[in-house]
Amino acid sequence: MNGGEEGQRLFVGGSWVEPDGGHYAVPDPATEERVGLAPEASRDQVDAACAAAREAFGPWSRTAPGERAAVLARAADIVRAHLVPYAELAQAETGATTATARGMQVGVAAARFRRYARVESAEWAIPPQVNEAGPFGRAAVMGALAVRQPVGVVTCVTSYNNPWANAAGKVAPALAMGNTVVVKPAPQDPLSVYRMAEALEAAGVPPGVVNVVSGRSAAVGEAAVSSPDVDMVSFTGSTAVGRRIAEVCGRDMKRQLMELGGKGAALVFDDADLASAVAGIGTTFSFYSGQICTAPTRVLAQRGVYGRLVEQLAAYAGRLKVGDPRAADTAVGPVISAQHRDRVEAYVETGRKEGAVVVAGGERPPYEKGFYVAPALLADCAADMKVVREEIFGPVVCVLPFDDEEEGIALAGDSDYGLIDYVWSGDVARAFRVARRLRAGGVGVNTVGRNMEAPFGGFRLSGVGRDAGSHALHAYSEVQSLVWPG
C-alpha cells in the first residue's frame, strides 16, 4: 500500500493495484534526491476508477448524511494523528518549509475534513404560490421545496503547490454531499494524496467512493476528465489546462468548478500602514516560494508612498533566508522543479529587458543541489510588461506607480485575471469603496488573511464557480425542486 522502494500503488475500487505504466521517481526539490516512486496509470485503469466511482455512487449517495460526516470526522482524526510523518512527506515532495507543511498543508487538510464532518441542511422551503385556475387545473396554492442533490461522480484534478489542502478541499465537501470521487493528483507530488486515500480507507469510506490515479502522461488526466462515468470536474491549476478541461466538459455538459490562475493586484494608498502592507505583500516571496495563485504579485503604489514601499519591500526580501526548507530559520524553500526555476528566472530577465529595475534578488542562490530562486522585486514596471500581465507563480513582485484612486482601480482591472486583489488604506471607507469596484472574486482589505467560510473563486480567466465553507457544498450539488398542491 505504502509502496516504499517497490513503488506506490494506485487506489481503485477499494483495492491497491499495481500500475500498468510502471513507476516514475518523485524528486525532492530541495535535495534532488528521490522521495519515492509514483505510479503511472493506464487509460484502462483510469476508466476502471471512474466505473468504480459510478458503481459506488448509488449506495453512498443514499447513505445518511450523518454517517458520511462520521467518516470524514474519523479521517480528520487519522490525518491529525499522523501529522508529522505526513508533513515530512509533503515537505519532501513540495519543498515547503516545516511550518508550512505542518500547518498549511496537512493541518489545513485535517481542518477541512473536520469542517465537512458536520451535517448542514440540504433543503429549504419556498414561499407558497397561489395559482389561478387554468388549463392545468383548478386554482390552488402550490407549495415547493428546494433540495440539494449530489452531482454524481466528481473528478478532482489537484494542484502541486498544496497536495494536502487542495485535495481535501475538493474531496471532503464532495463526499459530504454524497458524491463519489476520482482524484488525479499533480504528477510532481502525488504520494501525499495516496496517504490521504489511506486515511479515508482507514476511516471507513466504502470501496469505490474514493479512487486515486496518477501519472505524468497527459492521457491520465484526459481519461479522468472525459470518462462518460464522470458528471463533474473540479480542477485547480493553470488557466491553459483549465481551458482544455472546460472544452471537454462543455461537449458533455459536465459540471465544472475551476480555480485557475491569478495575478493579484495590491493597491497601496498614501495613507496606508506601510508595515502591514509590506508584511502582507512580502508573503509572496516566502509562502510556497511564491507558488500560490492568491499572491499579491502586482503592487500598485500611490506616488506619495511609492519610493518608501519599494525600499521597504527590497529590505524585506533581502532579510529572507533562502535554503533548506527543513532548517528552522529558512523562509524561502525551493520551487517545485528545475524547469519551473528556469521559467521564473526567465521572467525576471524578461522584466529587466522590458525596462523594469530589479531592485532585489532574482539570482540563483549558490547551492549545488535544489531548485532555488532568490525572491525578486521589480520596480518601475509598466502595465504592458509580460512580468506584470502573466502569472509567474514564483517569488517575484512587480511594483507600478499610480496617481489617484481612479487610476489605481483602472490599473488593477487591467488584467486577464481576477482571483484575489488587495487594498491598503488608512481610510476604511475608501478601502471598502475601492474594494467593491475591483473585478476580483475576493478582496483583502488591509490584510492577506482569509476567512475560510467566505466563497472562494475568481472572475475572468481566474476560474468558474465558488467553493469554501457552505459554498463548497453548493458547488458539489445540483438543486432539485419538489412542488405539490397545498
From TrEMBL:
Transmembrane segments: none
UniProtKB keywords: Oxidoreductase
A GO MF label: oxidoreductase activity, acting on the aldehyde or oxo group of donors, NAD or NADP as acceptor
Domain Aldehyde dehydrogenase: start-end pairs: 16-481
Keyword set includes Oxidoreductase: yes
Matches recorded under InterPro entries: Ald_DH/histidinol_DH (IPR016161), Ald_DH_C (IPR016163), Ald_DH_N (IPR016162), Aldehyde_DH_dom (IPR015590)
SUPFAM superfamilies: ALDH-like
Keyword match Oxidoreductase: yes
Similarity comment text for this entry: Belongs to the aldehyde dehydrogenase family.
The protein's name in its UniProt record: Aldehyde dehydrogenase
Species this chain originates from: Streptomyces zinciresistens K42
